[in-house]
Design brief:
The chain folds into 3 domains: 316 residues, Beta-galactosidase, Chain A, domain 5 (Distorted Sandwich); 239 residues, Aldolase class I (TIM Barrel), CATH 3.20.20.70; 80 residues, Sandwich (Immunoglobulin-like), CATH 2.60.40.1180. A hairpin with a 7-residue loop joins strand 11 and strand 12. It starts with a strand and ends with a strand. The strands form 7 sheets. Strands 6, 7, 8, 9, 11, 12, 14, 15, 19 and 20 form a 10-stranded antiparallel beta sheet that branches. The chain has 13 helices and 38 strands. It binds alpha-D-galactopyranose. Alpha-D-galactopyranose binds next to loops. The site of alpha-D-galactopyranose has 12 residues, from loops.
C-alpha cells in the first residue's frame, strides 16, 4: 500500500509503497530537500544538511546565509542562495525575480488532485503528498504534488504555481519537477531521431555541465522524446539501478541534467522555457504538466515494465485500454491519394477474407484532395471518389462484417481550401509576413474559440457520417511564426502552451462524444508519441517507416517507455516504400506483432500463398494478443548493439510467452545458436506451438532456446510458448 508519513520532529516526509521510498526533509523547517529515492528503506537519520554546512545543528540556519547552492532541493529557484538554474522563475511587477519559497503547509490525500485542462494519470490506489511553499513578500505559492501508487513504482510529480498576492507576476519558467541526486556516476539515455527514424536509443556518460534533450517545435516531436533515463554503474536490461523520467505533455519540452561543481546531478523536466511566459494575476494559478519518475533496481527492463504498468493501469482509458484491438488494414501505402470506392472495396473484401477486422480509409477522401497540397479543413466527402460519400462506403464495409475507420488531420488548414478562403485569419500567422508552409499546409489557431468550435463540429460530423469505429488523428507539421489575436503582444509567449491546451480540449470533446470509437494518434508517423497523447488515445502510429528492420530499432527503443499496446505496427509491401528493402513476409509480420497489428498494403496484389500466410498471422495475433499487447515485455538483444534484435512478452501468470528474434544479415555457413530468455517460470516446462519442442523455463533462461540460423537477410523466427 502506498503511504505518506510525516515525522515532525525530524522534519521528514516519507513516501513508500513497500518497494520504493522517496524521502524529503525540511531544512530548518523551511526548505524541502531531497534525501533519498530508491529501494524502500525504513528512514533516513543522517543529517545531510548539517554535514554539508559543516555544522552540528540547524541553529542559525537563516536565509541570507543558507548555502542552498550545496543542498539537494525539491523546488530550487535561482538567486536566493542557489546559484544553479532552478525549476521556477517568476518576474515580479517591479522587474525583480527573487523568490524565497519556504514551507507553509502540507496535506496527504487518497484523491489524486486533478490538473484541469491537462491530461494526467488516474489516481486509483494512490496517495498524494501536497507540499505548499510560499514567498512571504509577494504571496506567490507553489504546491509540489507527489503521487505514489500501490501497484506501480512510479511517482507522479507536478507543481501548481499560485499568485496569492494582489499584483500580477509573470512566470518565465515553470518546470514540473527537480530531482537533485547525490553523485553523477550515471549514463544518460535519451531518444533522438527524425522523420522515419524516430526514437533512436542514445546513451552517453554524464559530464560536468548541462546535457539532456528538448524541443521547441510545438510538439513532442520526431527529433526527440519527453523522456530520459539515468543508469547506474553496471546497469543492464535486468539488473542494476535505473531511473526513468517521462513527461505527460505533447508540446515543446525541456529535459536536462546538470552536473555541478560537487558532482551532484540535477534532473529537471517540464514545459520548454524558451519562448514561454505566463501572466498570473492575483488569485490565478498555473499548472505544470505531470511528470513520472520511475525507479528500478532491475535495470532498464524493470524501468520499462514500471512505465508499462503505469500506462496500462493509470494512463490509457476507455473501451480499448485493456481490451483486444482490431486487426486493421490501412489503404495509405496501397493507394496513396489515388483511389475510388471500387478500389477500396476490393482491398477491404480481400482483407476480410484473410481475417482482417477493420478497414481504414486514410488521407484523400475529402474536399478535392488528390495530393497533399489542398483541402485540409474541408471535411466534406469527395463524391468524385466516393459517389455515396463516407456513409455509403462505410455501410458497404460494415455489410461485409468489417469495421470502418477514417483518417483526419483536424489541426491543419491548406491555403488551397474553402475553409482558408472564408477564414484566412484562422491559421497561426505573424501579421502580414509570409505564411511559411510545410507540406503545403498551415496550422489552425487552436487558441481561438471559433476555430475549436468548427473543428469539434466538422470532425464530429465526419465521424458520425462515417459511422466510424476507428479514427486516425494525424498532425503533419510543426509550428513557427507564432501570432494570434487571442493574446495581447506582451503575452504572446503563452501561445505554445495554450495551443496544446486547445488541442487537448478538442480531443477530449471528440473522444468523449464517441466512446466506442478506437482513436489512434499520429504525427507524420511518431511525431507526437508521448504520455499526454496516450491519456487521450490509447495507441499511436509509431513511425511512417514500415520497414521491418528499421521498425525493430524504433519499436525496441520506444518500448523504453511505451508498451506494445501503444505502438501502431503494420505489415507493408516490399520493396519497402521508405527504405527500398525487401524482407520476407514472415519477418514483417513478426515485427508488426510487436505492436497493435495491422497491414499497410494492397492485399489484392498478394499471391494465394501470401494470403494464406496472412490468414495464419491474423489467427495468431488474435489467439496471442493478450500476451503480445499486455504481457510483461523483455528486451533481449538490442539492434543498436548488433545486427540482431530480440524481445519477448510473458503473460503475468507466466503461462504463455511469445519470443521474437530478427536477424539483419543472412550469413553463409551459419549454425543454430542459443537465445537466452527471461521472465519464465524456471520450474515449469514450455512447449513451442510450432515445433512442439518442450524445454524447461530454467533451461531456456540459463542455457537458451535453440534459434535456427538466419535464412537470408532480415529473417525472423518466433516461438509461441505455453506452459505444459
Ligand atoms: C502522415 C501519416 C501517414 C499518412 C499520411 C497521409 O504522414 O503518418 O501514415 O496518414 O500522413 O497524408
Amino acid at each position: 500500500m502506498a503511504s505518506v508519513t510525516f515525522d515532525p520532529a525530524a522534519g521528514l516526509f516519507h513516501l513508500t509503497n513497500g518497494r520504493v521510498s522517496y524521502i524529503i526533509s525540511l531544512a530548518d523547517g523551511k526548505y524541502p530537500l531531497h534525501l533519498y529515492w530508491g529501494k524502500a528503506l525504513r528512514t533516513v537519520r543522517d543529517d545531510l544538511v548539517c554535514r554539508r554546512l559543516g555544522r552540528r545543528t540547524h541553529d542559525a540556519f537563516t536565509m541570507h546565509e543558507t548555502p542552498l547552492d550545496r543542498l539537494p532541493q525539491e523546488c530550487p529557484v535561482f538567486g536566493c542562495g542557489d546559484m544553479r538554474e532552478g525549476m521556477l522563475q517568476v518576474r515580479h511587477s517591479d522587474g525583480s525575480e527573487a523568490l524565497d519559497l519556504t514551507y507553509l503547509s502540507h496535506s496527504v490525500s487518497d484523491e489524486k488532485p486533478a490538473l484541469p485542462g491537462l491530461p494526467s494519470a488516474r489516481g486509483e490506489g494512490s496517495r498524494t503528498l501536497t507540499l505548499t511553499l510560499r514567498d512571504e513578500p509577494t504571496g506567490v505559492e507553489v504546491d509540489l504534488l507527489y503521487t505514489l501508487w500501490d501497484d506501480c513504482d512510479a511517482i507522479a510529480r507536478s507543481a501548481v504555481i499560485r499568485n496569492n498576492g494582489k499584483t500580477p507576476v509573470t512566470l518565465e519558467k515553470a518546470l514540473s519537477f527537480c530531482l537533485d541526486l547525490e553523485g553523477s556516476g550515471y549514463e544518460l539515455v535519451t531518444l533522438q531521431g527524425a522523420w522515419a527514424r524516430e526514437r533512436q536509443w542514445t546513451r552517453r556518460r554524464l559530464v560536468m555541465g548541462d546535457q539532456g534533450t528538448g524541443t521547441v517545435r510545438g510538439a513532442s516531436s520526431q527529433q526527440t522524446s519527453p523522456f530520459l533515463a539515468l543508469t547506474g554503474d553496471g546497469c543492464t536490461e535486468d539488473s542494476g539501478e535505473c531511473m526513468g523520467f517521462a513527461l505527460c505533455w505533447s508540446g515543446s519540452f525541456f529535459a536536462n541534467v546538470h552536473v555541478d561543481q560537487f558532482s551532484s546531478a540535477r534532473v529537471m523536466m517540464g514545459v520548454q522555457p524558451f519562448d514561454f511566459s505566463w501572466e498570473l494575476k492575483g488569485g490565478e494559478c498555473f499548472r505544470c504538466p505531470e511528470a513520472y519518475l520511475v525507479y528500478s533496481f532491475e535495470g532498464l527492463g524493470g524501468m520499462s515494465r514500471a512505465f508499462h504498468r503505469l500506462v496500462h493501469s493509470h494512463i490509457t482509458s476507455g473501451a480499448f485500454a485493456r481490451a483486444s484491438r482490431p486487426i486493421l488494414i490501412n489503404n495509405w501505402e496501397a493507394t496513396y491519394f489515388d483511389f475510388n470506392e471500387e478500389k477500396l472495396l476490393s482491398i477491404a473484401s480481400c482483407a476480410k477474407e484473410a481475417g482482417v477486422d477493420l478497414f481504414v480509409l486514410d488521407d484523400g477522401w475529402f474536399g478535392r484532395r488528390d495530393s497533399d497540397n489542398c483541402s485540409l479543413g474541408d471535411w466534406t466527402d469527395d463524391l468524385r471518389k466516393l459517389p455515396e460519400g463516407l456513409k455509403g462506403l462505410s455501410r458497404k464495409i460494415h455489410a461485409m462484417g468489417m469495421k470502418f475507420g477514417l483518417w483526419v488531420e483536424p489541426e491543419m488548414i491548406s491555403p488551397d481550401s474553402d475553409l482558408y478562403r472564408s477564414h484566412p485569419d484562422w491559421c497561426i500567422h505573424s501579421g502580414d509576413r509570409i505564411r511559411v508552409e510545410n507540406r503545403h499546409q498551415l496550422v489552425l489557431d487552436m487558441t481561438r474559440e471559433d476555430v475549436k468550435a468548427y473543428v469539434k463540429q466538422a470532425i464530429g460530423d465526419a465521424i458520425g457520417r462515417a459511422e466510424a469505429d476507428y479514427i486516425k488523428w494525424d498532425m503533419n507539421r510543426n509550428i513557427n511564426m507564432i501570432g494570434t489575436c487571442t493574446l495581447p503582444p506582451e503575452r504572446m509567449k503563452e501561445f505554445s502552451f495554450r495551443y496544446i491546451l486547445g488541442v487537448y480540449e478538442v480531443m477530449r470533446d471528440i473522444t468523449s462524444r464517441f466512446p466506442r470509437v478506437l482513436f489512434e494518434s499520429c504525427a507524420g508517423g511518431g511525431g507526437r508519441f508521448d504520455l499526454g497523447m496516450m491519456c487521450l488515445m490509447p495507441q499511436a502510429w509509431t513511425s511512417d517507416d514500415t520497414d521491418a528492420w528499421m521498425r525493430c530499432g524504433i519499436q525496441y527503443a520506444t518500448s523504453l517507455v511505451f508498451p506494445p499496446s501503444c505502438m501502431g505496427a503494420h505489415v507493408s509491401a516490399v520493396p519497402n516504400h521508405q527504405t527500398g528493402r525487401v524482407s520476407p513476409l514472415s519477418a514483417r509480420a513478426a515485427v508488426a506483432m510487436g505492436g497493435t497489428f495491422g497491414y499497410e498494403l494492397d492485399p489484392t496484389k498478394l499471391s494465394e500463398e501470401e494470403k494464406a500466410d496472412i490468414r495464419r498471422y491474423n489467427e495468431r495475433v488474435r489467439a496471442w494478443q493478450d500476451v503480445l499487447l499486455y504481457g510483461d515485455f523483455l528486451r533481449l538483444k538490442s539492434p543498436f548493439d548488433s545486427g540482431e534484435c530480440a524481445w519477448m512478452s510473458v503473460s503475468p501468470d507466466r503461462e504463455k510467452a511469445v519470443v521474437t528474434h530478427v536477424f539483419r544479415d543472412g550469413a553463409p555457413n551459419a549454425m543454430p545458436g542459443l537465445l537466452k530468455l527471461r521472465g519464465l517460470d524456471p520450474d515449469a516446462d514450455y512447449r513451442d506451438e510450432d515445433t512442439g519442442l518442450v524445454l524447461g523455463g530454467d533451461e531456456m533462461m540459463l542455457r537458451g532456446i535453440p534459434v535456427p540460423p538466419a535464412r537470408g537477410d532480415y529473417s525472423a523466427c518466433q516461438f509461441f510458448l505455453r506452459r505444459v
